[in-house]
């Protein structure tokens, strides 16, 4: 077990060392390129400013969710769930009681029709 943790620790250390080297290479490249080609710096800075401005604008116009909004979403979710469950129940009554009776040449029972009517009214 201890050898496994030592190997993991060595791998972690070598990966963090590799990341440091990568950052150093990128930083060095930027320090060489920027003074030689000022247009690259201007282009990068304008791009970053545009992205920041877009982000700041998006954050400023969006409203943070409120408890009332969350409650309304939960209420709507409950309504949709009830509607879907009622539709499923209507399908069962139609399939088993109404169509089942009609297929066998019988009229559906009054209870089946009352149940179907009650379910349909429950949708509205």
Summarize the structure.
This protein is mainly alpha-helical and about 120 residues long.
Helix content: over 70%
Structural class: mainly alpha
- Alpha carbon gyration radius: 33 Å
Biggest sheet features: none
The N- and C-terminal alpha carbons lie at a distance of: 64 Å
Question: What is the number of beta strands?
Answer: 0
Contiguous uncertain segments of 5+ residues: none
Order of helices and strands: HHHH
**Quaternary organisation of the protein chains:** single chain
What number is the mean pLDDT?
A: 80
Helix run count: 4
Approximately how much beta-strand content do the residues carry? Answer: under 5%
The global form is elongated
Supply the number of structural domains: 2
Notes on the structure:
- The chain has 124 residues and is mainly alpha-helical.
- It folds into two domains: 60 residues; 57 residues.
- 89% of the residues lie in helices and 0% in strands.
- Helix 1 packs across helix 2 and helix 3 packs antiparallel against helix 4.
- The protein is elongated.
- The relative contact order is 0.05.
- The mean pLDDT is 80.
Q: How are the SSEs ordered, and which strands pair?
A:
Blueprint: H1 2-36, H2 38-61, H3 67-103, H4 110-123
């Amino acid at each position: 077990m201890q050898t496994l943790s030592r190997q993991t620790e060595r791998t972690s250390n070598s990966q963090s060392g590799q990341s440091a080297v990568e950052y150093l290479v990128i930083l060095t490249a930027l320090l060489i390129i920027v003074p030689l080609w000022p247009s690259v710096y201007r282009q990068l800075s304008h791009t970053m400013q545009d992205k920041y401005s877009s982000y700041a604008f998006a954050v400023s116009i969006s409203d943070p969710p409120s408890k009332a909004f969350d409650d309304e979403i939960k209420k709507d979710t409950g309504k949709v769930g009830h509607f879907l469950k009622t539709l499923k129940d209507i399908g069962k009554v139609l399939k088993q009681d109404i169509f089942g009776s009609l297929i066998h040449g019988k009229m559906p029972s009054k209870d089946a029709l009352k149940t179907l009517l009650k379910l349909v009214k429950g949708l509205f």
